[in-house]
Amino acid sequence: MKARGFDNEKYLEEQRHYILERVKMSDGKLYLECGGKLLFDYHAARVLPGFDPNVKMRVFQSLKDQIDVIICIHSGDIERRKMRSDFGITYDTDVFKMIDDFSKWGLKVTKVVITRFDEEPGAIQFKNILEQRGITVYTHKATRGYPNDVDLIVSDEGYGANPYIETDRPVVIVTAPGPGSGKLGTCLSQMYHDYKAGLRSGYSKFETFPIWNLPIDHPVNIAYESATADIGDKNLIDHFHASAYNQITVNYSRDLEAYPLLNRILAKITGVECIYKSPTDMGVNRCGYGIIDDQVVRKAGQQEIIRRYYRAACEYVQGIGSKETVERSRSIMEGAKLSTADRAVVPAASAALESGIERGKGINGIVCAAAIELPDGTIVTGCNSPLLHASSALILNAVKVLAHIDHEVDLIPPAIVKSVTSMKRDVLKGRGVSLNLDEVLICLAMSCAISDDAKRASAVLPQLNGCEVHMTHIPSSGDSSGLRKLVLNVTSDPRFPSSNLYNPA
């Protein structure tokens, strides 16, 4: 069993209490800007072992009778088909998913706002789809005067030009598929309308990282900086907070840069001096109080820093990332006195690759290898073959170890493998016939009907959740899908598995 470093229940109660405290500071209406991932926050789960990826939604579920939800999406992100890399879906598709996810947790979403709307065809189509499904869609134009002319921003020609989004509960969650979606502008626009109507509504941010009451050089905070290397976020000491309270806290550069302007806008809307003396003040972030073992989360943070370097390197060779991000990620890793060798599965995968080459493994002269660290620290490896991708071999080898099944046992009967490969080659005319991980998992499930060994192997698959994996090549889409479903922490060398430009399987 993996060591636990985080107490979800303690965090849930702390976060819930402070949200309600913020409601009391207003006239009973709080706009709560929620960045990051409210569901499936696997970054937090990786750096804070024990963290429930859905605990933030549990916080809201505990307040569901007091919550309205507004989802924001930038019209330009719809038009550009911006992707959420963790799920492999576009931002507009993620809005659909978010609505469904909220519903499953007992929180109904009936309001969506398209921000910086300029009659884009994709945004219009997106609006029509939602309206046909009973979702009210608002459109907000780009705010006149933003960011410099506060008098124009906070006027009927600025925020006042936006239609008011009707809500009737005290806590209004304002969230989005990703950064730059217009969450803050939506909150401030709502407050402008409220104050004109005589309602003293409030604003706050629901935050997770960086953790303000951990040191700036704590691996968990450094891991956040690495995770945002593509947008150049930096962790900084909140000098506003230090000046106001003589207390050292950590925040990120964008919030610190935005604070003076935000402070002025809030003062203009409310007509009084802003109640928040610093960006840290604005946040509701009790994550640090949920940490119960600092050494565990330090080690987890260090591993995430290395993982983020590998991710940046792979995205660069795939043409979806920049060299600057790779260099920034490497600099962060080296600044934390870490190297790729500090990730145990990396040298293990490299050794497996060398061994596979020596033994004549692989297919068509291309050898790929992978390694996994099991919960007890055991390292298991796998190589590709004419029948299996490296990740497929790896997972089959791993479940054999966990289920105490002899390595020579065929978990998937040869007849099933032959049938599937024949289908791929002869009927579907596939370029490659070896089985990717998605296909192997389906074959393993089929094998359970006729094999007790397959049943035992399938039963231990959940034990792989959260295990570390490294591959000597970038996994195919079918491998990536299977690895994601098993909730594995995967890295890979920035190398393609073949010379082909198209590798669909």
Task: Describe the structure in your own words.
It is a single chain. The protein has 505 residues and is an alpha/beta fold. It has two domains: 8-212 and 238-290, dip2346 domain like (dip2346 fold like), CATH 3.10.630.10; 344-492, Cytidine Deaminase, domain 2, CATH 3.40.140.40. It is built from 20 helices and 15 strands. The chain has helices spanning 8-24, 42-47, 55-61, 75-79, 91-104, 121-132, 150-153, 183-196, 219-227, 239-245, 253-270, 279-282, 294-317, 323-335, 345-358, 390-402, 414-427, 437-447, 452-459, 477-485, and strands spanning 30-34, 67-74, 83-84, 89-90, 111-115, 136-139, 171-175, 202-206, 235-237, 250-252, 283-284, 369-373, 379-383, 468-471, 489-492. Helix 20 (477-485) links the parallel strand 14 and strand 15 (489-492). The longest helix has 24 residues, at 294-317. It is globular, with a radius of gyration of 25 Å. The two termini are 33 Å apart.
Radius of gyration: 25 Å
Side-by-side strand order of the widest sheet:
6-5-2-7-1-8-11
CATH class of the largest domain: Alpha Beta
Detail the poorly predicted runs.
none
Largest sheet: 7 strands, parallel
Number of helices: 20
CATH architecture classification name of the largest domain: Roll
Question: What is the total domain count?
Answer: 2
Features:
dip2346 fold like; seven-stranded parallel sheet; Cytidine Deaminase, domain 2; 44% helix; 2 domains; 12% strand; single chain; 505 residues; four-stranded mixed sheet; alpha/beta; globular
